[in-house]
Amino acid sequence: MYRGCVKIVSVQRAAELLRAGGLVAFPTETVYGLGANALDPLAVRRIFAAKGRPPTNPLIVHVADVAAARALVRVWPPAAQRLADAFWPGPLTLVLPKQPQVPDIVTAGLDAVGVRVPSHPLAQELLRSTGLPIAAPSANRSTELSPTRPEHVARSLGSALDGIVDGGPTALGLESAVIDLTGAEPRLLRPGSLDLDRLREVCGPLRWEGNVIARKGEAQLAPGMMERHYAPRAQLVLVDADDPAQLEAIKKDSQSLRARGRKVGCLGFGVLQLKADWTHAFDPQDPETVGRELYARLHELDERGADVIYMERPPAGNRWLAIRDRLQRASVKG
Ligand code: TXA
Ligand code: MG
Fold first, then answer.
1. Which of 60, 75, 211, 329 to mutate to test the pocket of ligand 1 (most atoms within 8 A of CB)?
2. Tell me: the pLDDT tens digits for 298-312?
């Protein structure tokens, strides 16, 4: 279906397009990225325009290996080496002081750049065949759901793209963890597909200040901490399924919405039971499975025309941190 409106391109063609200043979406092991040559400010400007992304939110630069990452930064502390040895290629982004060759538009004027070595074979092939660092945010309109399949990219960005490299569904489904190594102590800026306890085993002390949700206009203080983010078109409502009063209220709301012809989706872990138009219980209920499927389920409900999605709040504990973070932001009203 999406093949009609957006061009699926080979890695070789994608590399040519990127070298010529084009915009190409490509798979990584986390989500699809919207790539442009990171050293070409005009190409990078097209990323911000296509996404409708505020210029205050910096981009991750993808490179093929540690040597290419080190070439973009001024400092390479021991913690960076340990983290890179343990998790690269993989779903980890390190923020480090940038070399002057990294254009200011990439870092939103900050002195530090986020670098990541993705493990997806097509991403690796693309990076190696261009020989370029590729700036790539998730390939979706700003604040909307991230894409884990090429059709999600096509629906969100369509004609703004020069091509999509089709790698099918992504393996992890949630974005990389972002660690800031510019301060006295490493700081987790965004929980992601690597969990906090595993990161701490390698990194040592790693500060996590909780889900800081910045108000509009504060993006520069806390890049990526914008209040509404990762959001489906439908309104997402998180439900404490073990709170009987809330459950009763939700059941009534859902019933009255449906009585007025509104469409209701229900996602959960087996406890939340609602009469809905579509219901899905994640199984098995582990963060890896939920992480892999979450965005695809939300995309699917949007596509079917859900007006409201009730979702059972995920369990407590560090393993669920990234999922709780995404859902909390996604449920902020637009
Ligand atoms: O898994 C991922 O990280 C995907 C794939 C495509 O690599 N990319 C991704 O990019 O999620 P994006 O732009 O959607 O999210 C990047 C996050 C944002 O929260 C951004 O603010 C933060 O990383 N970030 C990037 N560069 C930064 C910097 N120099 N300083 C602080 N935060 C930075
Ligand atoms: Mg994103």
1. 60
2. 999 999 999 999 999
CB of 107 shorter than 6 A to ligand 1: yes
For the CA of 107, the nearest atom of ligand 1:
29
Question: Which residues, including other chains, have CB under 8 Å from residue 49's CB and lie 6 or more apart?
Answer: 160
- Residue 114 Cα: closest atom of ligand 1: 26
Order of all β-strands in the sheet with 235-239? 235-239, 308-312, 264-268, 278-281
Q: How far is CA 289 from CA 7, 107, 312, in A?
A: 30, 32, 15
What's the gap in Å between 58 CA and the centre of ligand 1?
A: 7
- Domains of the chain and any CATH numbers: 11-203 (3.90.870.10), 235-330 (3.40.50.11030)
Return the ligand 1 atom nearest residue 110 CA: 29
3-state secondary structure (DSSP) of residue 189: strand
Q: How far is CA 109 from CA 59, 73, 98, 100, 181, in A?
A: 11, 15, 11, 11, 17
Reported as half-sphere exposure (CB side, CA atoms, 13 A), residue 7 has a value of: 13
CA 273 to ligand 1 centroid distance, Å: 36
pLDDT tens per residue across span 159-193 = 899 999 999 999 999 999 999 999 999 999 999 99
d(CA 57, CA 50): 14
Q: Report percent pLDDT > 90 for the chain.
A: 86
Q: What is the mean pLDDT of the chain?
A: 93
User: Residue 288: which residues within 8 A CB-CB, separation 6 or more?
Assistant: 172
Name 135's bridge partners. Answer: 36, 61
- With a 6 Å cutoff on the Cβ, whether 137 touches ligand 1 is yes
331 within 8 A of 234, measured Cβ to Cβ: no
Residue 119 Cα distances to 30, 107, 324, angstroms: 9, 23, 25
Gap between the Cα atoms of 305 and 85, Å rounded: 44
DSSP codes, 10-60: -HHHHHHHHHTT--EEEE-SSSEEEEEETT-HHHHHHHHHHHT--TTS--E
Please give the structure tokens belonging to residue 22. 């084009």
